[in-house]
Each structure stands twice: as structure tokens, then as C-alpha cells.
């Protein structure tokens, strides 16, 4: 769905001002040593989810594993929230105080099955892979939460800690349904992270988007004996593609439109009576996304008229642009710098050197040792459903070097590293940074108050959240092929 590395790891800007860490040094040391002690659990969880590689809304094993890990650690877990069977909320509450949320993702991407070898090696019979490293994301977030819980108990810290198990980030907009269900209404701050090829914190914007499937219906016929009796649904899809391509000249230049044909017929000598195209429209401005999406819909309707077919469509996802908290970024950046980057073994360096031969961009492997602080990166890049949370709760995230420098997200190289020890080391840096940041926020009511004021100012006094995907229920089958006979039953 997105390449969040572009968002979280942007070009260098002025350093963030130093943040006075609220947690005493001895307690910080205990938090970090606790994560180190549980490193085998983080690794086993991440590798198991990597091996399953379950796509959006089908992450039953991955979600169950994370829930079991949290239950064992003493969290109360509520599964199947907001109409999503693989979503959950895990909570630990001790008295009254701030509510700090940590996000966990665990969905894979279709078509990226790859071993953890440094050369392109597909896995026969497997259809998906963790090309965005969400196996690491979920595992590290859970370990960070467990570390915070232990610290809260040991030091009698008041408040509530929550882990939000959020499925289908890759195009399914799972977090949007969590927001819409009011599950963040009482939250003080939300923390997240994402795998990448460097270590850093940024407050740049991501792209808002709307995605959906256009389903054309025609009339089958023999393509040679009686083509005049047929009306090709595939023609409708192809005419729509041409219409949208001509439209590109007349939309804001920063807009992105991309699509694939997910169904186009079964045999050349049969006029196809069903065809489907899957579209994304992106821009940093949600209002532009709404407008351009409406024009794409008109292109579909006109194409159906031109080809004597009919068309219906289903919006499968829709997310806002990121509205990250600069106030929280200072806290997280300070903690990331304190944790530091990764140190690779000679074997890991050799593995990374071999993989790097396949990358179009060559970067220094030593960069994984470094951490970067930024006040703001350039806008754009990819999209994420974390953005909808960021418009309702003060939110901040980081990226860590889980991949070989120069690795693009959504690539086989990202899959390979996400299943390697390199990925685990980057995830451990993320777990430590989130744990320290969460602990600091429990002891920093003034920071939370400042972050809330910043959010209120940024979104304006008249802001009212309305999901870009409308009022539809979760698109639980968006990763499954659409049978021709079912297409017309989908809601718009």
C-alpha cells in the first residue's frame, strides 16, 4: 500500500531539540535489559509471522500468536474488534492516568514469496511475502508493550497501556475501522514504527488515498463466430484505462494514480462477460483525492457506455495523510539516539554485501549504525492507515534499519531481510525506542498536553473526522478474487 520509508526517513533537517527524559536512568536500563532478555521471543514471533505471510484480513495465525504473547504477559485481550476478525485490543491498566497506545501490524503482501537468501529465490507454492516487514512490526511492538507493563508494575506507574492489533494495513485500511469505532477516543498518544533501511524519526506527511475495484459486466459470445452478439467487459476496463491515462495531464501534478487488471477473461476466443480493475488515487491533500477519485468513477461510467457494458465499483480502502506530532517526535528522537543504531556481525555484513549487488542504489552499510533526527521530511511517498489515527490522537513513529541500505519497500530484498537476523536487530532497536518513549510519556503530562494542543491547532477548530472510505464495513475479502457472478452484489 505504501512505502513509508520515504515518509519516515527523509532528507536531513535541523536537529530536534533535546528532550529531558522523564524516566530515571536506572529504570531506563531495566526496560532495555528486559527487552534484551526477551530477544528470543521477539525473534521467534517475527520469524513465525514471516513464515506464514498472511495477507490482509486473513492473518488468523499471526494475530492469534500476538494475542497469545500478550495474554501470557498479563494483558487483557479483546479479539475481533471493529468488525475485523483478525483485529484486537490488548490492555493493561493500573489506576488512573494517561492512555498510551502502541500499534502492531502483521499483514503480508501478495506476490512476494522469497526465502531469506541474499539472492532472488522464490518459494514454490507460496503466494505472499513480508515485503514491508510487518512481521517485525507486530513482534517488536508487542515486546515494547511487555517491557512497559513490567516497568509500570515495578514502579507503580498509573495509567493504561494498549496494543492495537491492526490488520490489513496494505490496502485494507484496518485502522480506519478502529478509529471509526471510537477505539482511540480516550487515548493520550499513539506510538508506532516501520521497517526501513535507516534509523530516524520524521514528521513529514504521507499521501492520502482512496482505492477500489471497478467491475465491468458484458455479454459472452464466440469471439470469431459471433462477436457481434457479445459485449466485452475487458473492453470496458481497457477503455477506462485509456480515459484515466488521458486524464493524468489535467490533475494536480503531485497526484498518483495506479492500477492493475485483476480479471480479464479466461480465453481469447470467448468475449469476456466480466472484467475487473483495481485502482489507487493518492495525494497529500485528502480533498484532491476525493475529487480525482470522482473523476475516475466518471471515466468508468463513460467507458461502460462506450462499450455497451455496465460497471459497478467498490471502495476497498481510504486513508488520510499523516499529521504527525512534532512534540512527540522530540521525545521519540531523544530515545532513538540514546538506543543507537545496529551493529552487524561479519556474517551479516557479508550477507548484506551480497544482497546489495541486486539494488539499484548503493548506500554505505555503516549507515545502519547511525540515528538521524529530523524536524520535518518532504511530503509524499506512500500511504498508511496510521494517518487516520494521527488526525484523532497525537501520533508519532520511527523507522529502523531492518533492511540493507538502499532497499526499497515492497521488494524481494525487503522480504529476505525481514526474515533475517538483520531484520531482528532493527526490530529490537524499534522495540527499545518505543518502550522508552512510552514510559517517558506516562510521566510527562505536560508533553501530552502540548501534543494535544498542537494537534487541535493543526487540524483546525471545525475539523470533523469523516473516513475517506465512507461508512462501508471492512472489506474482508479485498485480497480474494471476485467471482463474476458476485461482482454486481458489491456495495458502492
List the helices and strands and how they pair.
Elements: H1 5-8, H2 25-37, H3 39-52, H4 60-72, E1 76-79, E2 88-94, E3 99-104, E4 109-110, E5 128-129, H5 134-155, E6 159-165, H6 174-180, E7 189-196, E8 200-201, E9 208-217, H7 233-247, E10 256-263, E11 274-283, H8 286-307, E12 310-319, H9 326-339, H10 346-356, E13 372-373, H11 386-390, E14 395-401, H12 412-418, H13 421-442, H14 445-459
Parallel strand pairs: 3-6, 3-7, 7-14, 8-13
Antiparallel strand pairs: 1-2, 2-6, 4-5, 8-14, 9-11, 9-12, 10-11
Helix pairs in contact: 2-5, 2-13, 3-4, 3-5, 3-13, 4-5, 5-13, 7-8, 9-13
DSSP helix fraction: 25-40%
How much of the polypeptide forms β-strand, as a percent range? 15-25%
* Rounded mean pLDDT score: 92
Number of helical elements: 14
CATH homologous superfamily descriptor of the largest domain: Zn peptidases
From the alpha-carbon coordinates, what is the Rg to the nearest angstrom? 23 Å
Helix-strand topology string: HHHHEEEEEHEHEEEHEEHEHHEHEHHH
Domain module tally: 2
What coarse outline follows from CA principal-axis ratios? Answer: globular
Low-confidence stretches: 1-18, 487-492
Q: What strand line-up does the widest sheet have?
A: 1-2-6-3-7-14-8-13
**What is the CATH domain class of the largest domain?**
Alpha Beta
CATH architecture of the largest domain: 3-Layer(aba) Sandwich
Largest sheet: 8 strands, mixed
Number of strands: 14
Fold-level CATH name of the largest domain: Aminopeptidase
Main structural class: alpha/beta
Amino acid at each position: 500500500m505504501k512505502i513509508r520509508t520515504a515518509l519516515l526517513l527523509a532528507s536531513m533537517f535541523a536537529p530536534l531539540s533535546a528532550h529531558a527524559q522523564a524516566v530515571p536512568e536506572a529504570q531506563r536500563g531495566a526496560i532495555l535489559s528486559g527487552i534484551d532478555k526477551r530477544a528470543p521471543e521477539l525473534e521467534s514471533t517475527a520469524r513465525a509471522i514471516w513464515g506464514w505471510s498472511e495477507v490482509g484480513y486473513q492473518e488468523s495465525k499471526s494475530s492469534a500468536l500476538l494475542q497469545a504473547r500478550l495474554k501470557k504477559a498479563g494483558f487483557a485481550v479483546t479479539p475481533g474488534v471493529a468488525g475485523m476478525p483478525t483485529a484486537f485490543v490488548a490492555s493493561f491498566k493500573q489506576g488512573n492516568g494517561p492512555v498510551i497506545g502502541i500499534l502492531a501490524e502483521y499483514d503480508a503482501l501478495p506476490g512476494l514469496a522469497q526465502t531469506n537468501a541474499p539472492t532472488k529465490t522464490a518459494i514454490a507454492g507460496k503466494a505472499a511475502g513480508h515485503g514491508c516487514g510487518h512481521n517485525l512490526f507486530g513482534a517488536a511492538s508487542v515486546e515494547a508493550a511487555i517491557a512497559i507493563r513490567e516497568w509500570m508494575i515495578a514502579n507503580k506507574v498509573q495509567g493504561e497501556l494498549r496494543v492495537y492489533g491492526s490488520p490489513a494495513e496494505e490496502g485494507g485500511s484496518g485502522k480506519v475501522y478502529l478509529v471509526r469505532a471510537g477505539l482511540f477516543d480516550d487515548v493520550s498518544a499513539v506510538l508506532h514504527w516501520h521497517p526501513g533501511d535507516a534509523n530516524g524519526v520524521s514528521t513529514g506527511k504521507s499521501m492520502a488515498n482512496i482505492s477500489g475495484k471497478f467491475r465491468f459486466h458484458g455479454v459472452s459470445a464466440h469471439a470469431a463466430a459471433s462477436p457481434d452478439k457479445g459485449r466485452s467487459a475487458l473492453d470496458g476496463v481497457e477503455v477506462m484505462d485509456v480515459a484515466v491515462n488521458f486524464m493524468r495531464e489535467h490533475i494536480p501534478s503531485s497526484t498518483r494514480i495506479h492500477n492493475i487488471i485483476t480479471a480479464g477473461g479466461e480465453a481469447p476466443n470467448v468475449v469476456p462477460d466480466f472484467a475487473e480493475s483495481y485502482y489507487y488515487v493518492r495525494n497529500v491533500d485528502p480533498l484532491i483525492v476525493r475529487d480525482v477519485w470522482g473523476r475516475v468513477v466518471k471515466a468508468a461510467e463513460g467507458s461502460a457506455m462506450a462499450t455497451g457494458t455496465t460497471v459497478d465499483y467498490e471502495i476497498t480502502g481510504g486513508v488520510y495523510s499523516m499529521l504527525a506530532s512534532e512534540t512527540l517526535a522530540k521525545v521519540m528522537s531523544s530515545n532513538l539516539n540514546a538506543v543507537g543504531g545496529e551493529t552487524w556481525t561479519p556474517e551479516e555484513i557479508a550477507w548484506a554485501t551480497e544482497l546489495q549487488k541486486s539494488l539499484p542504489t548503493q548506500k554505505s552499510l555503516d549507515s545502519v549504525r547511525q540515528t538521524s533526527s529530523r524536524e520535518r521530511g518532504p511530503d509524499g511517498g506512500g500511504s498508511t492507515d496510521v494517518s487516520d489515527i494521527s488526525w484523532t490522537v497525537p501520533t508519532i513513529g520511527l523507522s529502523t534499519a531492518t533492511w540493507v541500505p538502499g532497499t526499497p519497500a515492497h521488494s524481494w530484498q525487503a522480504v529476505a531481510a525481514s526474515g533475517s537476523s538483520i531484520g531482528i536487530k532493527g526490530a529490537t532497536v524499534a522495540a527499545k525506542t518505543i518502550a522508552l518513549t512510552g514510559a517517558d510519556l506516562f510521566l510527562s503530562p505536560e508533553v501530552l498536553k502540548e501534543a494535544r494542543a498542537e494537534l487541535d491547532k493543526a487540524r483546525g477548530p471545525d475539523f470533523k473526522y469523516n473516513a475517506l472510505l465512507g461508512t462501508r464495513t471492512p472489506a474482508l475479502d479485498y485480497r480474494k478474487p471476485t467471482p463474476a457472478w458476485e461482482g454486481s452484489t458489491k456495495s458502492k
